[in-house]
Write a structure and sequence with these properties.
Layout lengths: L3 E3 L6 H13 L1 H14 L6 E8 L2 E9 L3 H14 L3 H4 L9 E2 L3 H15 L14 H5 L7 H5 L10 H8 L5 H9 L10 E3 L3 H14 L3 H10 L22 E2 L1 H12 L3 E2 L2 E2 L3 H7 L9 E4 L8 E2 L4 E2 L21 E3 L7 E5 L4 E6 L8 H15 L2
Parallel strand pairs: 5-9
Antiparallel strand pairs: 1-3, 2-3, 2-14, 4-6, 7-8, 10-11, 11-12, 12-13, 13-14
Length: about 375
């Protein structure tokens, strides 16, 4: 069956018009991106959206749809098990398709936290006990906010699947934090890295404390609405899973990436200070940090605040207990469990997003690096 590729979207007529001109002039270059997605589509879940933005223009925005019979049957089985609408699950992807984006959510939560740090509502070096007494009650009040943002709390927390399951029975943010506070420690805060949902959930609770608003409202007012992310939220019911519970669309998430690329500005409006955008993009994982759990998809990348740093610059702590520092990363990303891969290239001045939904994660890190290399080559 031939690949069906669609340039589809709402309010994207100007993008499509530009694409026609751009592709006519540089068909050989952009065809390399198309070929890569086409060649890898079976391993990406049979559907994908690829977008690239540079120099104030959307240079590439294309949907790919070619589900195999096996993938169709898998979707039909999911519909029967979950009670979801089969037709909806089998719909072609477009620029406005909405899916759960898993750990791409971490970037959103960290960015929201930066808006409060900008206002002085808290400092990165503040202890969590200052805002959440329950953490002090269980001996964890000395953990720092920067450690929560960089997965170095030292708390032994579960992965996304475990957290989703555990959150089903939790009714309030307070209950979620008490559960985290009661969890065992596995190492020294700041010196133990575990990629989990613990740190960002603590950040969500602190955001609720300092803003006096629920997390979903805070996110809507400070990130979603200013960035015109009309179809992005954290589920709108129950306790939001701050590290993996967001739903978004390719079009929405690209607006977020554009803001990061533009060092905190979107459509002329300041969302986050440039200084804190830079702080987010510094590796905080030094050689003296014990890594107890890290996804294979991350390879040997370092980690900043809510995002992986893809070139792992050297990290230095000036004194014991201080927040480690490094140079700003040339490229940052926050890929999700379901395969979506957003990234911002600081050195080549562009951002891009591969939007997919696929649980097969074998070889993902290599694919991510390969795709980035293809796009880097096109934008030379």
């Amino acid at each position: 069956m031939s690949l069906i590729m669609k340039r589809i979207g709402i309010n994207v007529s100007s993008i499509i018009g530009f694409l026609l001109i751009f592709q006519a002039a540089t068909a050989q270059d952009t065809s390399k991106i198309t070929k890569w997605v086409n060649d890898n589509l079976p391993d990406l879940g049979g559907r994908a959206v690829m977008m690239v933005y540079k120099d104030g223009k959307m240079l590439y925005a294309q949907a790919f749809n070619n589900l195999s019979k096996k993938q169709e049957n898998r979707a039909k089985l999911k519909a029967r098990i979950t009670g979801a609408d089969e037709e909806v699950l089998l719909q072609d992807y477009t620029l406005t398709t909405r899916e759960r984006i898993a750990s791409c959510s971490k970037w959103l939560t960290a960015a929201l936290a930066m808006t409060y740090a900008d206002e002085g509502k808290f400092r990165l070096n503040d202890t969590v006990g200052k805002y959440l007494p329950i953490m002090s009650k269980y001996g964890k009040g000395n953990i720092r906010i920067w450690q929560c943002l960089s997965h170095t709390t030292g708390i032994k927390g579960g992965d996304l699947r475990e957290m989703i399951q555990n959150m089903k029975n939790i009714k309030t943010m307070g209950e979620a934090i008490e559960q985290i506070a009661m969890a065992p420690m596995e190492g020294e805060p700041g010196k133990t890295f575990r990629y989990s949902n613990v740190g960002l959930q603590i950040i969500a609770a602190i955001i609720e404390k300092v803003s006096k608003k629920d997390f979903e409202t805070a996110f809507k007012e400070r990130i979603a609405e200013p960035l015109n992310m009309k179809n992005t939220d954290f589920g709108k019911k129950g306790v939001p899973l701050a590290a993996g519970g967001a739903y978004s669309t390719p079009e929405d998430y690209m607006n977020f990436l554009m803001m990061i690329l533009n060092e905190g500005e979107f459509n002329g409006k300041r969302i986050i200070s440039k200084a804190l955008i830079v702080e987010m993009q510094k590796n905080r994982i030094g050689k003296d940090v014990l890594v107890t759990s890290s996804p294979a998809e991350a390879g040997n990348w370092g980690y900043g605040f809510g995002e992986w740093v893809m070139d792992s610059p050297l990290t230095i702590a000036d004194k014991k207990g201080a927040m480690p520092d490094s140079k700003r990363s040339d490229a940052v990303t926050s890929p999700g469990l379901f395969g979506s891969f957003p990234w911002v290239s600081n050195d080549k001045k562009y951002c891009a997003f591969l939007f997919v939904y696929n649980l097969q994660n074998k070889g993902r890190n290599e694919k991510y690096k390969e795709l980035k290399s293809v796009v880097d080559g096109v934008l030379r």
